[in-house]
Amino acid sequence: MSVRAAILTAILCLAGSRLFSAPLFSLDDQLQPLHGHCSIAPSTQADHVRYELDRGTCDNGSGHCHDSDSDVPITTFTGLAFADFEHEGAHVEAKIVAEAGTISCSGQIHDLILSGDFTFTPDPAFVDRMTHLGFSDFTSEKLETYTLFHIETSWVQGLQAAGVAEMNSGNLIALHIFKITPEFVRSMVALGYPNLPASKLIAFGVHGVNADEVKQYRALGYNPDAEQLIQMRIFKVTPDFIHRMEARGFQNLTISKLVQIRIFKLAD
To answer: What is the pTM of this model?
Structure first.
């Protein structure tokens, strides 16, 4: 799936999380390999290639299933070098190997494009480890996304140790896309925002909430809660904006008033 589609899937996914003592799925029943067409070509971006994965008709018959297309560093793939694209007719097998599984694109070079068949093979051992961490509702399609974004158990454990609440196998994707790291979570905990739910942290990532700006708010005498931080970012209530309001004689404005000034463009 595209990055936009992956974000939408992650945000809308409502899968719960439970702790099981044994794997929920086995490769033989729920986690079947995925197959389709693939192409990889040099990108206009230096040291990158553009890949496309296409599974044709969706399994549920809902229409065309376009899996993913993106520009990534060529080092994302093993078994592929830029020199390979110069060898017309050569057979190449490029792979993305990750903890959740392996994506292979096997085909021939024609007109500087590797075109052929792709296979995603999920790793049941990864599902076993994630199940013991309290996550469920895995599918091959979801694990393919985990593989594309290199979602690893060590990162998940780091988020759990940092106190992230309400994580599930769906919102992990969005947490990773928006670069919610254990270090970021700990920085927010240190500022007085412990045990934030995954949905709130995703919103932090979407809107660019960061520890440095929170410290600037504090220095100005404001102590916004998590929801107020998001609102302040959405409506551009920045430390600089607050300074400008103060310079105009508007002292000690509440966060609510500052947001209203932005919404109704009263400062223009």
So the answer is: 0.85
